[in-house]
């Protein structure tokens, strides 16, 4: 009897949601008027409908020939050494490993007629061969139409002549609420189509993976191999592309991240149309408006994006936007937080006119700017591309995993370092080092060490060496990361 009573209570809670708190008359009134979304009795019908549109992605990367492998010596025809060396070269695979590198991921079909498939950029990056494996195990060679590293998206295309494909539509991720049910389908650990469920745990997550971070967070089980797979709402629409997980173990701990469809759709459309992205560009470097900055500029509450620098030949300069201006609105979109501006600008049509509302000298000013193209600006050298890194040598700091160098003009341009920031540039961070474990990264600027200003690698080395000589177990760094300043303690005894 006890088991039956317990089972009845569990079912009641699952169906009625928060009904168990209605002993309080106030809560009872609210519960009676609030809409109740029933927990699905089963996800089987939805999963059965959607699974044929979800695919596995298999990539192959051919191994590179070792540079130091000897070439076949030249011998006179009929020489006994010719057969000997021929046998030796064949036995050792002529310098190449016998098996190429392969990897697995997930994807989904958005256009059954034209064969367009969506996945993550990191799933197909550096691949020499890509195959799309359908739910019935049919394997199709795929062409990479284009990819985008900034949002980690890629578009593939398969031949549909002899295969009837099933597609799924994109939904509106902006309408998704925290607590909504979602369904994830993918290829975890290469096991094939696997279905997991959960809820939207959070919205607009920034995990420092790129300039347009705006992830949906979910507690649905997401593992390696799920990358590129779809996150569905209960209408069977794709509202996210599963991309990353937070995990100290390498497996799912209930914290997964998906690219929202509202961010993905414009990128996908551009890649299909142009074979690449064509983002809008304003030509400014921005930073967060803090409470202190807002007060000093008589803005009131912190909002908008503060202009830290203006590109000389960029659209903003031509429109009269100045350093110290705060962008409050862009093309009618209010900028509540600094990180909102890059996305609004990126999604604006190239060469279109945009109204920009600024805060300048204690009052609002409106200017009109002609939006440029980000990728063209990178090609022309007006701004560094994502792959650019100043070529220079640095000084290695033993024990903490840092390579330091003095800041040059090209460093300020490449890493967006303001002119008024002085210190030592972190040029490289060794993997699995103390510095990496504390979140230090290339482009960060060390302003102080143990509360002593530093401007050269030699000064930094001297302070650290003195700390070691004095048997100090750690040093305290003051680090500036693109305008954000923080203290980082580095252990010296690891």
What does this protein structure show overall?
Strands 21, 22, 23, 24, 25, 26 and 27 form a seven-stranded antiparallel β-sheet that branches. A six-stranded antiparallel β-barrel has the order 1-2-3-6-5-4. A six-stranded antiparallel barrel has the order 7-8-9-12-11-10. The protein is globular. With 494 residues, the chain is of the alpha+beta class. The chain has 13 helices and 27 strands. The protein folds into four domains: 32 residues, no CATH class; 224 residues, Thrombin, subunit H (Beta Barrel), CATH 2.40.10.120; 99 residues, PDZ domain (Pdz3 Domain), CATH 2.30.42.10; 97 residues, PDZ domain (Pdz3 Domain, Roll). 22% of the residues lie in helices and 32% in strands.
The second-level CATH architecture of the largest domain is Beta Barrel
Give the DSSP E fraction (strand runs of 2 or more residues). Answer: 25-35%
Q: Find the count of extended strands (DSSP E, 2+ residues).
A: 27
Mind summarizing the main beta sheet?
Answer: 7 strands, antiparallel
Low-confidence stretches: 1-34, 385-392
Count helical runs: 13
Approximate helicity band:
10-25%
Name the shape in a single word.
Answer: globular
Instruction: Fill in the CATH topology of the largest domain.
Output: Thrombin, subunit H
Mean pLDDT: 81
Distance between the termini: 59 Å
Query: From the helix content, strand content and strand pairing, which structural class follows?
Result: alpha+beta
Total count of domains: 4
Cα-atom radius of gyration: 28 Å
CATH class of the largest domain reads Mainly Beta
